[in-house]
Automatic annotation (TrEMBL):
Pfam families reported for this sequence: Methyltransf_16 (PF10294)
GO biological process per UniProt: methylation
Keyword Methyltransferase: yes
UniProt-listed InterPro entries: Methyltransf_16, SAM-dependent_MTases_sf
Classification via CDD domains: AdoMet_MTases
Recorded superkingdom: Eukaryota
Gene Ontology molecular functions: methyltransferase activity
Record's protein name: Lysine methyltransferase
Keywords, comma-separated and alphabetical: Methyltransferase, Transferase
Length: 230
């Protein structure tokens, strides 16, 4: 499934189906659902260990991501959540202590999607306004977090510096940035990776590990971890 004009997108996650409402006509990109978010959720859906009391009988299959996706007792924050797809999907996979963030104009689209999916999620997830360059807003979230989630957030060169700084400020020493990435702007791309390589060790998830129904050639998942101090 590629990015679509359909006003509603259905995303199966484990035994549930998220219903995602998007408005492609708005001037804010966050009111649309972007493919990286679907790819990240379905990658995690493929590998996240089953939740307690939901044995599938396949637990003995070797799982290279069982430690990564052991969400027990972990805290997470999502940057540029848009319609909230990644956060809601990972919540369904057990990442229950999380807060979704975006700029103020995107909040109505996020709130609408949280409301539509409240029954599936069992509650309204936490959300907060966060502009990447606002240190006070970052502090209010009470970092550090075990996971920083970010999908399709690298597309404007001017915001790349604040984005990487926000990731750094939010991530715990042993934390992981779950990044869904697609090249949107060559300038933003170049700067983003130049900055990232200074602070993070970068692991690219092999395409064959993505969910086969949600693996697009142009979309990648990266795992960013803080470089260890020498
Ligand atoms: C292309 S959308 C991706 C939305 C969502 N993550 C997805 O994958 O469907 C980029 C998101 O980043 C947010 N964003 C862009 N610049 C931002 C900034 N400076 N501070 C906070 N959020 C920002 C936008 O509002 C938007 O929701």
């Amino acid at each position: 499934m590629k990015f679509t004009d359909s006003p509603v997108i259905e995303l199966p996650v484990r035994n549930a189906v998220l219903s995602l409402q998007q408005d492609n006509g708005s001037m804010h990109v966050g009111t649309s659902v972007w493919p990286c978010s679907l790819v990240l959720v379905k990658f995690a859906d493929r590998w996240a260990p089953p939740l307690p009391n939901t044995s599938t009988g396949t637990e003995s299959t070797p799982n290279p991501y069982s430690d990564l996706f052991d969400f027990r007792s972990k805290r997470a924050v999502e940057l540029g959540t848009g319609c909230g797809v990644s956060g809601m999907g990972l919540y369904l996979l057990g990442l229950t202590n999380l807060v979704l963030t975006d700029i103020a104009p995107v909040m109505p689209a996020l709130k609408r999607n949280l409301k539509i999916n409240k029954t599936v999620l069992g509650k309204t997830l936490k959300y907060s306004v966060l502009y990447w360059n606002k240190l006070d807003q970052i502090k209010t979230l009470n970092p550090p977090f075990d996971f920083v989630i970010a999908t399709d957030v690298v597309y404007i060169e001017e915001t790349v510096g604040p984005l990487v700084s926000a990731m750094e400020a939010l991530l715990s020493d042993n934390g992981v940035v779950l990044l869904g990435y697609q090249l949107r702007s060559p300038e933003a791309d170049k700067l983003f990776w130049e900055l990232c390589v200074k602070v993070f060790d970068i692991e690219k998830v092999p395409h064959e590990d993505l969910h086969p129904d949600y693996a697009y050639e142009e979309t990648n998942i990266y795992l960013l971890r803080r470089k260890k101090k020498q």
